[in-house]
Amino acid sequence: MQIFIKLVIAILLIPFALGLLISFGKLAASLIPLSSSEIWFLTGFVIFFCVFLIKSVPGRVYVFGHELTHAFWTILFRGKIKEFNVSSKNGSVVATKNNFLISLAPYFFPVYTFLIIFIFYILAFFLPVSKYIEWLFFFVGISYSFHIFLNFESLSIGQSDVKKTGKIFSYIVIAILNIIIAVVMLKFITPDKIALKRYFFESWTVALKICEFVWRHLTELYNLI
């Protein structure tokens, strides 16, 4: 029964995922010409992509980040970590709480990216690091690229977290949350170009149009039958 409910929810979420994706495409196109911060971010993003292509990323780095994200989201939901294990090929977290967000967190939450941003702003309280802000965007680009491509590879070979939560439901949720975080990331990099309220309103409008389109054609098909 739970699997069926998740499947229904996943199907209902598809128009909203498409709305977010279509609006994101328009948003990305509106960023041209690129600002200096965007160029630094994109440079870091592309550099890691090249590293990814030659397969020179230590597995332990990805596994540690994966399990760290599980642990972080467990704590967010007021759970406790009992065990934290990491090796070069796999890892595990034993915790007192679990839900679908905790299970899927590594696939949508770029933990290294947020860690880099957090460390930078902590240092800003003690050191004059603001003059290195472009380097922050560069390393954010590297870490975000790390998140995107290694998780894409990981999901392509199958993951137990996804199977337990339900494949279709998991993929839709992962897609939606990745798009939202990507928009937030762009807002951080280039705040003057992006209005989050307008983006989400446009996404909602597109989603409603998709729902109306599907409903109209389903009604026509029903009448023919």
State mean pLDDT (0 to 100 scale). 91
Shape: globular
Instruction: Classify the helix fraction into a percent range.
Output: over 70%
From the alpha carbons, calculate the radius of gyration and give it in angstroms. 20 Å
What are the segments in which pLDDT stays under 50 over at least 5 consecutive residues?
A: none
Sketch the major β-sheet.
2 strands, antiparallel
Reading the helices and strands in chain order gives HHHEEHHHHHH
Alpha-beta content class: mainly alpha
Strand fraction band? under 5%
> First CA to last CA: what distance?
29 Å
* Beta strands, count: 2
Task: Quickly count the helices.
Answer: 9
Write out the strand line-up for the largest beta sheet, numbering strands in chain order. 1-2
Can you give a write-up of this model?
With 225 residues, the chain is mainly alpha-helical. The protein is built from nine helices and two strands. A two-stranded antiparallel sheet has the order 1-2.
Which features does this protein show?
225 residues, mainly alpha, two-stranded antiparallel ribbon, globular
Question: What is the secondary structure topology, with strand pairs?
Answer:
Blueprint: H1 2-30, H2 36-53, H3 59-76, E1 81-86, E2 91-95, H4 100-108, H5 111-123, H6 133-156, H7 160-165, H8 167-189, H9 196-224
Antiparallel strand pairs: 1-2
Short description:
The protein has 225 residues and is mainly α. The chain has helices spanning 2-30, 36-53, 59-76, 100-108, 111-123, 133-156, 160-165, 167-189, 196-224; strands at residues 81-86, 91-95. It is built from 9 helices and 2 strands.
